[in-house]
Amino acid sequence: MFYQGNEPLAVFFLCSGRARLTRGEPGGLRSTVRELAAPGFLGERALIAGETHDACAQLQDDAIACSIDADAFLGLWKERPAFARAMARQLAVTLGEIESAIAEFSQRTVLERLAGKLSERLARASATRPLPIGSRGELAEALGTAPEVVSRGLAQLRRRGILEVRARRAWVLDPEALRAAAGLPARDEPAARRQ
Question: Is the pTM of the predicted complex or chain greater than 0.85?
Answer without folding.
Answer: no
